[in-house]
Amino acid sequence: MELLDGKKISNDIKDEIAAEVAAMKQRGERAPHLAAVLVGNDGASLTYVGAKVRSCERVGFDSTLVKYDTDVTEAELLAKIDELNNDNAIDGFIVQLPLPKHIDEQKVIMAIDPSKDVDGFHPTNFGKMALDMETFLPATPFGVMELLERYNIETSGKHCVVIGRSHIVGRPMSILMGRKGNPGDATVTLTHSRTQNLEAICKQADIVISALGVPNFVKAEMVKEGAVVVDVGIHRIADDSEKGYYITGDVDFEAVSKKASYITPVPGGVGAMTIAMLLKNTLIAGQNRK
Length: 290
What we know:
By secondary structure, this protein is α/β, with parallel strands linked by helices. It has 10 helices and 11 strands.
């Protein structure tokens, strides 16, 4: 068993981006600028946005954090998005999800200029991805593809089972694994909570990508010997430790790692890659804007 070390690969990508930004500055060009909009005080969102801001500093990007209280109106948020769309100093921006219930997430995503949508959530970018056109890929699936590529995981002709059909991970993941090219060219089965015989389907898979959002859902008996296992899930589970919680994924790592040929750890796997690919999208956005 070999770890698909997202922490290491994400650091490699950040080093590559930092070198590119340094070269841009030497040419007298400005650094890419990423903005993040955060609504409320959700603990996971605060942690994630904080990590994005620190990563921007590390690679030499400019960054802006826009914070709102939970009671911000939808109209105020949409006005800020319009402002960011029209600000030539901002190359790309994200609105951290989830949003409070009184705000229509779909309306917010639709309001973002696709050329600044570095999360890759806008229907224009999603449609381009589905048609194999050049566009911003959603950061988490983009990170998974990058991990598979950098570890030289053979995907062509392999049976890939994706667990979960969210618009952010599962569905784009299934599209990317089935596209022409490397990584890709896999035969993809997209499964979800209503799938019958899920265990039997998983056992046939050469590659299992779990983005279901259920802690320790994927058990050893669901995975065949030598399979590649990618765990996109990340869960805080309360315990009696000093921290008060521990982090785990969708996969029962202890048991499944004994059968897998490659497996991502949680933490230190896909999560680390998500931020690296967001930076990569922002770099591309900056280059496109020139």
